[in-house]
Amino acid sequence: MNSTPDRIGDLVCAYLTEQCTVIIDSEADLRAGENVVHTTRVAVRRLRSTIRVFADLFDETQAQQLDAELVWWAGMLGAVRDLDILSVRLAERLAELPPEVVMGPIQSTIQTELAVRRKKASDAMLAGLDSERYRKLVALVRRWRSDPPLTPVADESAEVIERYIKTAKKKVRKRLAHAVATRKAGEPSAELFHRARKSAKRHRYSVEAASPLWGGKAEKIVEDRKRLQDILGDHQDSIVCAAFLRELGARRGIRSGQNGFTFGVLYAMETAAGDSLLTDLKPFL
Questions:
Q1: Residue 211's domain is classified under what CATH number?
Q2: Residues 223, 118: Cα–Cα separation, whole Å
Q3: pLDDT above 90 for 4
Q4: Domain count of the chain?
Q5: Over 60: is that where the pLDDT of 1 sits?
Q6: Can you say whether the dihedral through the CA atoms of 55, 61, 67, 70 is positive or negative?
Q7: Is the residue at 1 inside a domain?
């Protein structure tokens, strides 16, 4: 039975090591076309979150170097994953519509468009795997896994992790309150809610790192953050989906054999999806 780490450096690095391992081990599966884009992307997010939330524990210059490369790789993975999310969402939306509202070959039009875009994004990701930049990234992640550049702060008691988690939690509340106030004022708020969602993820990941110390307490907080992420994530997905439908409908809906009506119906569904956002967020304010 593993004992709970006494030092915060050991506690945080155990979590960091898990993420590094997922990233390193994902390469073969990504090359083989296995469904690991999402898990790899999440590991990248968790690693970035760890070196940001617990920034005092790591050498600043080396942490910035790692973060910059992780941003690049997350972008590659995200370009593929976002299209997968869009594909599933639109398939579900179309399934909700009565047959008489689905006019023209809209399903095949959407599927073809997304397949073309995903192929391009996937090819770019695979090219990234073959790049010298990726090789350097993997080498960097390996070094962080085996010998993270810790500062003397890492020798403090594991109990001080609560201080970092409280700071992460305050940032969520601040960003969420600002986004809600901005939306109530009728001002553009999409980017603010997106930032609040990212803060919620960082708070959740910091609590995950504390799980060996906090046990059931951590599990409850993580579940609460997941619910908040789901609400904000659905809101973000609806914005992305609406933009896609507007662009594709305007470009393809006017062609011979096409009918732009269903594009408009789907667009209306997505824009209406955000009507309950403020009500859904009340328990988190």
A1: 1.40.20.10
A2: 31
A3: no
A4: 1
A5: no
A6: negative
A7: no
